[in-house]
Structure formats: C-alpha cells, structure tokens
Amino acid sequence: MVFAAKVSEVPLWGKKVVTMNGQEILLVNSKGTIYACETECPHQGAPLSGALLKDADIITCQRHGYRFNLQSGECKEFPEYTLKTYPVQMVGDEIHVEI
Ligand code: FES
Question: What are the phi and psi torsion angles at 48 (to 5°)?
C-alpha cells in the first residue's frame, strides 16, 4: 500500500487524479467511501475524471453512459467491459492504494 492523497483532497462525490509510481490513478469519493480505479474508461478510453457520480459505488462514464461498480469494476449492462480497480486502505486521514 502506498500513500496516494489526504482524504480532504477528495471532496464528497468528487474525484482526484494522482500519480503513483508513474501511473495515473483516479480516486473517487462516493458517498464517503474512497475508491481507486484507472483513469480511462475501458470502453473507448474517455477520461473518467469527467465521469458522473450519482449512485453510491457507481461511476458513470460521460461518453456513452456505461456504469461501473467502483468496488468490483463490473459493468452490469456490458459485462465484456471491466473497470480496473485498486484496493484502498484508510490510514488516519490518508488514502493508501495498492497498485
Ligand atoms: S468511452 Fe466510456 S462508455 Fe464509451
């Protein structure tokens, strides 16, 4: 697990892109739970920094509306596409991610 950001840097229902070991990771605060995932949609590569967060634990790509579970990466409607997600651990007010 590697330090990624302070919790205060990822606002509620917000996102933040961080670079860890030269790799960009998207941190997401969905209803108070922090998730980490890849920054590009596995469908056609839209940047997920502009994705929508409306439902808990779900990120919705703004380009074609595919919905991914932030925990498992699963897309129920299009199961052939899976979002890469990373384990997150909270250490006090710090977000640590395993990449
Ligand atoms: S590029 Fe994300 S749904 Fe198509």
Answer: -80, 0
> Is the shortest distance between the CB of 64 and ligand 1 below 6 Å?
yes
Predicted TM-score (pTM) of the model is 0.96
Architecture of domain 2-97: 3-layer Sandwich (2.102)
pLDDT tens readout for residues 2-29 = 999 999 999 999 999 999 999 999 999 9
Spatial distance between the Cα atoms of 70 and 73, rounded to a whole number of angstroms: 5
**E strands of the chain, at which residues?**
2-6, 15-20, 23-30, 33-37, 58-60, 67-69, 85-86, 88-91, 94-97
51 CB near ligand 1 (under 6 Å)? no
Retrieve residue 2's tokens.
């590697």
